[in-house]
Amino acid sequence: METVPDPRCSRAKKHVLAEILTYLVAGYVTGHDTLRSCIAWCCRHLKWLRKGMKLKNGIASIATISRMLSQIDEELFLFAFMEWIGEMLKTRGLHISIDGKAVKAALSKVKGGRTPMLLNAIETASGLVLAQLPIENKDCEITKIPELLKLLDIRDSIITTDAIGTQTSIMQTIIAQGGHFVMMVKGNQPTAYDELKALFQEVNRDAEISAAGKTGFLHYDLLGKVDVFRRKEKNRDRIETRIYQVCHDPAYVTKTHKEWPFVKTIGLCKQLRILRISDDNGNDITPSESEFLKSGTRRQPKPATGDSESSDFQIVGLVSDLKLSAEQIGKYKRSHWRIENSLHHVLDVSLGEDRSPAKKSKNNLALIRKFAYNILRLATLQQNIKLPITDLMFYFSDTLDLLGKYIFDGIEALN
User: Fold this and answer.
1) For the chain, what is the domain count?
2) Considering the domain boundaries, does residue 197 fall inside one?
3) Alpha-carbon dihedral of residues 258, 261, 267, 273, nearest 10 degrees?
4) Ramachandran angles phi, psi of 373, nearest 5°
5) What is the pTM of this model?
6) Is residue 258 part of a domain?
7) What backbone phi and psi angles, to 5 degrees, belong to 95?
8) Which of 78, 131, 219, 309 has its CA 20 to 30 A from that of 279?
C-alpha cells in the first residue's frame, strides 16, 4: 500500500494513506461489507492493529476515508494491486477468464442512468483476481478487453470471455501478445452461430445414417473426425447434461476464411438443464431428456431453447486457435464461469459490492474488496481451510493471528 501515491498536500496529514488502505482491507476480510462497519471494527481492534502499524492518530473518520478514496488515482492504485498479486502468481501459461460486472447500487448516483461496470480478470484455477478496468456499459467491453489484456502477461495463457468478446480485434490482440483463446459464439455472431449449429446437426445426422448402414452422407469427409464429450451431473435441484462436439476443419465457418484465419478448432456445446421433480410420495419422477424436450414438466412447462445461460436447452458455438479435444474445450468453457460463480457472486453477497452506493470512490472501493477477496482465496489455498467464504470471514475475525499473517507479513508465492 505504500506504493499508492497520496493525493493530499504534504501538510496537515493526520492519517497515513497506506495504513488506512491496510486496515480497510482487514475490515473487509473479517466480514464487514460497508465503510462504516469496517471503521467500527477497526476502532474496536485499534490495539491489535497497532501491532502492525503505528496509527499515531487512531482510525480516520468515515468522511476522511471517503474523501481520500475518491481522490486516489485509480490507475496507480490498480498498478499497486497488480504488483501485489503479481508477486504471488505469474499469469503466464494459465487460464484467464474475463467478464464484466455491474455495480447496481451506484446507478442512482450516476448521471445519465447507466449502471457503472467493471471488467474483471481472474485466474480460474486459484480464483484470484488479476486486474479490473472500469467500463461505461456492457457494450464497452469490446473496446476495453484489449486494454485489460495489455496490462497482463498472457504468453501461453488461454483467454476466455463471454460471447461479447468474440471479436476479431480481441482475438488478434490475444495472439499478438503470445496468448491463445477459447471463445463462445452466440447470436451476436449470427452467421457463424448458424453455420456451427447446422454443421453439427448434419454431422449427427450422418452418424445416424452410418450406424444404420445407409448412404447419403452430407459430410463424408468428417466421418470419424468429430470428437464428442458428454457429461451428466446432478447440480443441486437439477440434472445437467453437456454435450461437446469439435472438429479441426474450420473451413465450414465462413469467417475463418478471412477474418479468423487463426482458428483451428470449431465446436458446439449443448447444455440441457432439467429441474428435478417428485410425486406426492417423494418419488423422483424427473423425465428423460427426450421426454423433457418434447413435453417439459410442471416446473418447466415449455423448455426455453437459446444461447443464453438461462436457457433450459442452451446451444453455444465454440472456436479456438488451438487444436483442442471436445473434453478440453468443455473444460475451458466450464471453468470460464468461475468468474461469475466464485468472484461476482462473492463480491455481491459477501462483500456488499452490489449494495454499495458509492459514486466517486466506487472503483477504488472495488479494489479494496478485491484485495480482501484475494486474501480469502489465498488462505483457502495455503492454509487448507475448507470453509465457505462467509464462514472464512468469521474465522479470520476470530483468529487475529492468521489475519495478521496475511495483512502485515509477507505472503508466499503460489508459483
Assistant:
1) 1
2) yes
3) -70
4) -60, -45
5) 0.91
6) yes
7) -100, 115
8) 309
